[in-house]
């Protein structure tokens, strides 16, 4: 990483060619052109020895002019043209080895040669320039394509900002920073190489660029003394932020092609930022809506489930207090039983809420131990005896069931919730079946009732917190938490729980599967 940062730090030096490198390149072009003329001269002298006419040798001198135009561009080609005219005159026209020309015919030949060479070099240089700009355009298109593909792969805003800086810095060979609005100003949110130094002049330039939607800073009339050149990132929705590029010692850090590329990169970056910001907005409004839904469900459930038993307790207690003398033994016992029953319901409700809180806060640590599931089934049935009084309970335990690693308290709570539901949602007098058997390497525990079952579309959703099937809503008290707690507890013990509708008769069937662990 450090290495990458260090090498990235050399951008300004080896990126846009420095003046020194440019001078060297020019010198090489002129030297190359001169070399080509020398080669043509050698060839011309050889041809002369072979008695080829001087007029034809002019064609040999056209070669270096055309080659220089194609290889180096117009100016070196004109330079080659000038050298060719001089060499042609010096070595081939009498008097030899002087720059004077005796024959007027030769003057005409030389002038025509110079004219042809100039026109040809112009044409060749133009073809070269066109080819170069085509190639550059193709490179830019390819760079943009790669850039947009890279950005499309990123989802989080911070990762995206970093990727934008990295890509721009790599493509334009200039250290890059990205600023986004924060608290009425702009703050550096990413930089490659990492750098969040913002001199005062740079802050002002970036702000100006963001507010005016135009470039500012180094190399522009606005805040020219800033260390970076700032470009706004704009979309149809306005300016989203500013990208800043450091330059070398020359004013603008970028050539005009690079400037065009930067503009295109900034447009794409702005679109990518907008995409991620919109996605984040949608996500957070979804979370807010979900939280709101849960809060509303909790409030509805609280008001219903606390009020109903409280009203019964209050009513029974008031009757006992004021009319005790007028009530016979049985009526009094009935009122006391109601108080007891409703208080138990309240207790269950609050215990459910606490369990749910423990599950949601991740504070649930099951105390696993090797247990015999029939023991826990027995104690759950005992605890639910009162609730199951109106139903017939049938037990089908396969013989020789292996021990399973479970938390007996949590498992009993799961069984209790399922039995409570079976009693609630299946009519009195029907049968509730409790079954345990071995299936491969898992112990299956099933609770089946003879109620109306669960709509197919709700079989999975009933495990969501606060989810209640509508038709059941008003008829029976409940929070919609029981099954969510069952699933939370069962999964915390490495098991699974699913709901079915019975195929042998009507009614719901809940199946839990627990892997048979090694005995400790
Ligand atoms: P609650 O019973 O408090 O509403 P649960 O989470 O225990 O909450 O159950 C969620 C929903 O699943 C219930 O409202 C009910 O519609 C449905 N449900 C649960 N058990 C059964 C069952 N045995 N038969 C039919 N429907 C059931």
What does the secondary structure layout of this molecule look like, with pairings?
Blueprint: H1 2-8, H2 11-14, H3 19-49, H4 54-72, H5 74-92, H6 104-152, H7 157-172, E1 176-182, E2 185-192, H8 200-212, E3 216-217, E4 228-235, E5 238-246, H9 256-323, H10 329-360, E6 369-371, H11 373-383, E7 392-397, E8 404-406, H12 408-425, E9 431-439, E10 442-448, H13 470-473, H14 482-492, E11 496-501, E12 508-515
Parallel strand pairs: 7-9
Antiparallel strand pairs: 1-2, 1-5, 3-4, 4-5, 6-8, 9-10, 10-12, 11-12
The structure holds adenosine-5'-diphosphate.
Can you put this structure into words, describing what you see?
There is one protein chain. By secondary structure, the protein is α+β, with helices and mostly antiparallel strands. It has three domains: 2-148, no CATH class; 154-282, Beta-Lactamase (2-Layer Sandwich); 369-515, Histidine kinase-like ATPase, C-terminal domain (Heat Shock Protein 90, 2-Layer Sandwich). Helices cover 58% and strands 15% of the residues. It is built from 14 helices and twelve strands. The chain has helices at 2-8, 11-14, 19-49, 54-72, 74-92, 104-152, 157-172, 200-212, 256-323, 329-360, 373-383, 408-425, 470-473, 482-492; strands at 176-182, 185-192, 216-217, 228-235, 238-246, 369-371, 392-397, 404-406, 431-439, 442-448, 496-501, 508-515. The strands form three sheets. It has a five-stranded antiparallel sheet with strand order 2-1-5-4-3. Strand 11 (496-501) and strand 12 form a beta hairpin. Helix 6 (104-152) packs parallel to helix 9. The longest helix has 68 residues, at 256-323. The two termini are 48 Å apart. Residues 1-16 have low confidence and may be disordered. Adenosine-5'-diphosphate is lined by residues 421-422, 425, 449, 451, 453-454, 462, 467-469, 472, 478-484, 508. Adenosine-5'-diphosphate (ADP) is lined by residues 421-422, 425, 449, 451, 453-454, 462, 467-469, 472, 478-484, 508.
């Amino acid at each position: 990483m450090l290495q990458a940062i260090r090498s990235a730090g050399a951008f300004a030096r080896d990126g846009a060619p420095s003046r020194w490198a440019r001078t060297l390149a020019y010198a090489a072009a002129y030297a190359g052109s001169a070399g080509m003329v020398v080669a043509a001269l050698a060839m011309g002298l050889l041809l002369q020895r072979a008695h080829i006419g001087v007029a034809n040798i002019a064609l040999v001198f056209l070669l270096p002019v055309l080659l220089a135009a194609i290889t180096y561009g117009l100016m070196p080609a004109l330079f080659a043209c000038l050298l060719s005219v001089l060499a042609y005159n010096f070595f081939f026209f009498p008097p030899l080895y002087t720059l004077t020309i005796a024959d007027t015919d030769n003057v005409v030949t030389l002038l025509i040669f110079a004219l042809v060479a100039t026109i040809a070099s112009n044409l060749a240089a133009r073809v070269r320039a066109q080819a170069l700009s085509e190639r550059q355009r193709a490179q830019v298109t390819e760079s943009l394509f790669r850039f947009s593909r890279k950005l499309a792969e990123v989802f989080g805003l911070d990762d995206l900002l970093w990727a934008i800086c990295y890509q721009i810095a790599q493509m334009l060979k200039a250290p890059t920073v990205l600023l986004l609005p924060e608290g009425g100003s702009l703050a550096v949110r990413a930089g490659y190489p990492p750098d969040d130094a913002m001199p005062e002049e740079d802050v002002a330039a970036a702000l100006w660029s963001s507010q005016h939607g135009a470039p500012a800073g180094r190399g522009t009339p606005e805040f020219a003394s800033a260390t970076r050149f700032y470009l706004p990132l704009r979309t149809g929705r306005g300016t989203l932020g500013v990208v800043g590029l450091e330059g070398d010692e020359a004013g603008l850090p970028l050539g005009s092609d690079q400037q065009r590329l930067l503009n295109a990169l900034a447009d794409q970056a702005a679109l990518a930022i907008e995409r991620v910001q919109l996605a984040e907005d949608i996500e957070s409004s979804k979370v807010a809506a979900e939280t709101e839904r849960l809060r509303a469900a909790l409030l509805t459930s609280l008001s219903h489930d606390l009020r109903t038993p409280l009203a019964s307790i209050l009513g029974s207690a008031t009757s006992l207090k004021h009319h005790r003398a007028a009530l016979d033994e049985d009526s009094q016992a009935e009122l006391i039983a109601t108080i007891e029953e409703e208080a138990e319901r309240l207790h269950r409700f609050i215990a459910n809420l606490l369990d749910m809180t423990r599950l949601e806060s991740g504070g649930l640590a099951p105390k696993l131990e090797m247990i015999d599931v029939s023991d826990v089934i027995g104690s759950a049935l005992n605890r639910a005896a009162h609730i199951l009084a109106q139903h017939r309970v049938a037990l089908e335990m396969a013989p020789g069931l292996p021990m399973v690693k479970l938390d007996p308290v949590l498992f009993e709570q799961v069984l209790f919730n399922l039995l409570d539901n079976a009693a609630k949602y299946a009519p009195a007098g029907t049968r509730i079946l409790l079954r345990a058997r071995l299936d491969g390497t898992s112990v299956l525990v099933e609770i089946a009732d003879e109620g109306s079952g669960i709509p197919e579309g709700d079989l999975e959703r009933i495990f969501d917190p606060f989810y209640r099937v509508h038709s059941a809503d008003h008829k029976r008290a409940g929070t919609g938490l029981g099954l969510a707690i069952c699933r939370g507890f069962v999964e915390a013990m490495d098991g699974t729980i699913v709901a079915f509708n019975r195929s042998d008769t009507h009614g719901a069937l809940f199946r839990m599967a627990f892997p048979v662990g090694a005995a400790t």
